[in-house]
Amino acid sequence: MSHVPADLRYTDDHEWIRTEADGSMSVGITDHAQKNLGDIVFFDLPQVGRKIEAGESVGVVESVKAASDIFSPVDGEVVAINEDVVDSPEEVNSDPYEMWLFRIRTKGGASSNGLLDAKAYAKLVEGE
Q: Which of 12, 28, 7, 38 is nearest to 97 (CA)?
């Protein structure tokens, strides 16, 4: 069973979202995604300043087994990328919930309300 922190929101594409104190949203991949991918070796992340829409492919995660798209959970603008993840992608294997990939500043009124809560996400991954 994958670890699913209760304080985060989730997408059905296996990204997690955390709203930060400054209102931006950090995005990462879930424990379930990391376990299915295996040893992660590379991230291609969106550029800071890029305007993105919910559901848009904004990057790629590569493992020894496969490559998968990373999708934006919300509309907004990329305001930061985690250089530590780019430099040491294998760090995500040990704790995917500590290693955010990028941060988004949402457009006015956009929120994570349409995303899955921990209970709904856990139910989703149980069915896979």
A: 28
Please provide the size of the chain in residues.
128
* Pairing mode of beta strands 51-52, 102-106: unpaired
For the stretch 53-95, pLDDT in tens is 989 999 999 999 889 999 999 999 999 999 999 999 999 999 8
**Can you tell me the distance from the alpha carbon of 123 to that of 128, in angstroms, rounded to the nearest whole number?**
9
- Look up the pTM and report it: 0.92
Query: In Å, how far are 31, 48, 52, 86, 88 from 34, measured between CA atoms?
Result: 5, 24, 23, 16, 15
Distance CA 38, CA 126 (A): 18
